[in-house]
């Protein structure tokens, strides 16, 4: 896997916008056999599709979504031939810890944790049998730097990273490498798609409004999705990819500060960057 031009078969979830779309375009241009997913591929216009890329249905919020995708991959004859799985699709969620609906938290974990884990399990037998493969989890720097009113999202991405870290130890003897890529602020327009929860008359209204204003501004000024895609491609083609990659939000500086500063001070810095006084 030392050359992204060698016809790798790559499955990218959520490849119709943001980081996923940038990845699909870059990998297709490099000659990879790219398959990607959308909740409803039939609604995609020709301009939404990258030539030569296969678009398959997948809704990770549905408990059987990954297994149904595996059935489609089996019908196409590629389930056991996936060289690279990039678990990119996910939901961004915000809301006060006290007010987050239980069903919203459950959906978020199905989408951001359980779905990617199950899909990884389904492609692993083929990778392990061929003794080669890459699984890349697209996380978030909020897993490393939790933020007020993003508790569910931060927790889900932290869970995904921990799954990946342990799985890497299990799978590396078989030539299968698992990596996590944690983007910071990325200019993908994800703020427009974020699910938001805030009760009428909530005592957290001012705090949430301030946080979201700063969060959206940071994302608008963030790095382009193509830079994250390039980092992920580096992990694909490396003979021994790193366990962890961080990109955006002036990384690796925040991680250096995290090691050097008391945890309470780091939390105050993260809050202050989003307009919150703690």
Automatic annotation (TrEMBL):
This is SDR family oxidoreductase. Belongs to the short-chain dehydrogenases/reductases (SDR) family. Transmembrane segments: none annotated. Residues 8-189 form the Ketoreductase domain. Pfam families: adh_short (PF00106). Signal peptide: none annotated. CDD domains: 17beta-HSD-like_SDR_c (cd05374). Keywords: Oxidoreductase.
């Amino acid at each position: 896997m030392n050359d992204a031009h060698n016809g790798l078969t790559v499955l990218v979830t959520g490849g119709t916008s943001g980081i996923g779309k940038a990845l699909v375009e870059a990998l297709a241009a490099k000659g990879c056999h790219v398959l990607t997913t959308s909740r409803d591929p039939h609604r995609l216009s020709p301009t939404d599709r990258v030539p030569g890329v296969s678009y398959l249905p997948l809704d990770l919020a549905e408990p059987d979504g990954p297994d149904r995708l595996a059935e489609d991959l089996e019908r196409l004859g590629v389930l056991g031939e996936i060289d690279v799985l990039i678990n990119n699709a996910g939901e961004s969620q915000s809301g006060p810890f006290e007010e987050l609906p239980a069903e919203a938290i459950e959906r978020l974990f199905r989408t951001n944790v359980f779905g990617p884990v199950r899909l990884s399990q389904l492609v692993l037998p083929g990778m392990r049998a061929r003794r080669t493969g890459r699984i890349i989890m697209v996380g978030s720097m909020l897993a490393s730097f939790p933020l007020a009113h993003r508790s569910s999202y931060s927790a889900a991405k932290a869970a995904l990273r921990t799954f990946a870290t342990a799985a890497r130890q299990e799978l590396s003897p078989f030539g299968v490498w698992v990596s996590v890529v944690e983007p910071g602020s990325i200019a993908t327009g994800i703020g427009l798609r974020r699910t938001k929860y805030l009760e009428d008359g909530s005592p957290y209204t001012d705090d949430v409004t301030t946080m979201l204003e700063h969060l959206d501004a940071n994302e608008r000024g963030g790095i382009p999705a193509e830079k994250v895609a390039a980092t992920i491609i580096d992990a694909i083609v490396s003979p021994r990819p790193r366990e962890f990659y961080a990109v955006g939000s002036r990384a690796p500086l925040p991680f250096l500060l995290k090691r050097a500063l008391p945890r309470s001070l780091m939390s105050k810095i993260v809050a202050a960057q989003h307009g919150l006084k703690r």
